[in-house]
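@channel anyone free to eyeball this complex?
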Amino acid sequence: MPDVQAPAILAERVGMRFRMSREKVDNLKEYVIRAVRRDLQYNAFWALREVSFRVEKGERLGVLGFNGAGKSTLLKLVAGVMRPTEGRVEVRGSIAPLLELGAGFDMNYTGRENVFLYGATMGYSRKYMQTHYDEIVEFSELKAFMEQQVKDYSSGMRARLGFSIATAVEPEVLILDEVLSVGDARFQQKSQKRVQGMFDRGVTVLFVSHNTAQVRALCDKAILLEKGRLIARGSADEVCGVYEKMVKR
Amino acid sequence: MFLRELYNYRHLLREIVVKNIKIQYRRSVLGVFWTFLQPLLTTLVLVAIFGKLFGGNARDTVNYPIFVLTGRLLYEFFSQSTKRAMRSVTLAASVIRKVRLPKYIYPLANVISVFVTFLISLIVLVCFLVFFLFWGDAPPVLGWHVLLTPVPLAILFLLCTGVGFILATLTVFFKDVEYLYDVFCLILFYATPIMYSPARLGAGKWTQLALQANPLYSIVEMFRDCVLRGRLLNPHHLLYALGFSLVTLALGGLLFWRKQEKFILHL
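replying in thread with the prediction:
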């Protein structure tokens, strides 16, 4: 039996430092010239510092903050694509990241083939995806287009297919990065319903948004970041209030 | 740990390999035939131009068209697979930025998919061998040595994977590596005995040594030992090519492994 008390996401004094070169050196020629001249200078800056929080299983945490506050860095650390410079991040259970529009798709591949490619990217076998295939097609409403190449899809169609695949599997931790605005109004309603259904079944959610109304509606807790520091935490209502005050200032 | 991870992501590896091959054949009207046509045509051109110049002495080349074709095929596999592996990580940037997965899958899958197309293109070689065995005044010497062909091919595969890892890592940090590598491949084409026999070059001792430092030299010559000259693999070539490839693979793997955490900051 897994420990019931163990949180789904645990961040302990997390810090992330980036070392950026003062001028962008992205080619070998310049790098060599500068290395010879000893002209390679770096600026270190902390995108996150001393950030601690925990999300219990089934809890939904909103992450608020202005641009550059460190929200996306935090999401990347939780998703496991980056490692923190200091502190630690622990996630229990499978994570489903929602990819940005079109990422994970091959444009020269048909819709059907992309379902399996996208599934494999998330670590699922062909067989497993096969059992979810009909459901994905039906939800995306793209039945007539599945044998067409994705490059001929409109961006809305691509988004619908991506959303349908990503939410067809039942992850334990869901990372939502402003993706609830996919497709037209009708599809948006449909997708919100589906996400709500996952909520009801007790999925743990990390939701990043600027929209306090959405955070209030979806999350029960929230944290607020400013310049890499965690400056407020509490119920979604409280933290949204603090954030709205900051916006007005 | 490494093997378990690879096993867990075998679906992704398979999907990418299959995708690359499918798309390559879907894009061209000629489909699979292009795989045969391309080496066939380039070999014909090379034979037509250089046949008189380099093909005269049958002692080394045995059969000049087959000599050229074997060199072409192996060189083409090397350059294509390493170039594909080089671009694989930057092309997958949008996925790597969001999903935690073993990044080495991308260069590895690309070398494998080019290897599969390379194996398909070997059918051209089989046709050449059969043709010259029955028609032609310089038949290839075929014996049980043909069974040894997997040896140079396996070594070449290791080499390509190692070089692929190194290039994939470098291109993440330096965008101009792609152009530099194109130039490198052009030089490599002439530095590898594809159209000429090294023994007949009449080069000095140092030039010979420099040519032999190229691992493709040993690999191509071993391959020819198997399918053209009908003799045992040269042990010097075998040791050198195998050692060089293993060291390259170890270095490439290590470089990729140690730098992969930083990829995301540059993609």
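from a first look: The domain at 9-94+208-248 of chain A is CATH 3.40.50.300 (Rossmann fold).
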